[in-house]
Amino acid sequence: MKFSLLAVLEYLCAKLSIITLMLMAAVTFADVFGRVVFNAPLGFAYELVGIFLAVSFYAGLYHVHKTSKHIRIDLFDGLFKGTPGVLVFWFGYLIEVVFFGALVVMVYQTLQDTRLFGETFMFLGFEKWLVLLVMFVLAVIAFVSLIVTTPETRSARLPRTERQG
């Protein structure tokens, strides 16, 4: 039996994303139902949905990076064939790595700042840095996915008609 840490991370991130989306829908339903039927909405629904959305987003980034399914502008893809196409593809990949690496660092810095200042959620009452820690760990996992999915491995997964060169 072959064991792959990346496959385990992908599985866990996918399940976490699905679970948080379901929880987000359940909290939203309970909030609206309570507001309409009992005239008593959940006070903490806004914060909880925000947390679930952030966790779902960062958990889903692993798959997005691995499959290169993010939004991209491909207007000029037909103009760059062969070596220039490979160079443009690598240039775009390096920009993506730099910017996402900067995002990971910024999430970490925000985590440290909120921990240092002891910021808490207004209605939930626990400290914000705990949620940011989860987001940071998921962002690091997504960054690993981006690093191991180089343009060479991405183009190998494309159909023959879409490959560069």
Automatic annotation (TrEMBL):
- Primary subcellular site in the record, as a coarse category: membrane
Q: Where are the transmembrane segments?
A: 12-38, 44-64, 85-109, 129-150
Cellular location(s): Cell inner membrane; Cell membrane
Keywords tagged on the record: Cell inner membrane, Cell membrane, Membrane, Transmembrane, Transmembrane helix, Transport
Q: Which InterPro entries match?
A: DctQ
Membrane protein topology class: Multi-pass membrane protein
Task: Cite the Tripartite ATP-independent periplasmic transporters DctQ component domain residue spans from the record.
Answer: 24-148
Domain of life, per UniProt, equals Bacteria
Subunit arrangement?
A: The complex comprises the extracytoplasmic solute receptor protein and the two transmembrane proteins.
Family designation: Belongs to the TRAP transporter small permease family.
What this chain does, per the entry, is described as: Part of the tripartite ATP-independent periplasmic (TRAP) transport system.
What's the protein name? TRAP transporter small permease protein
State the species of origin: Oceanobacter antarcticus
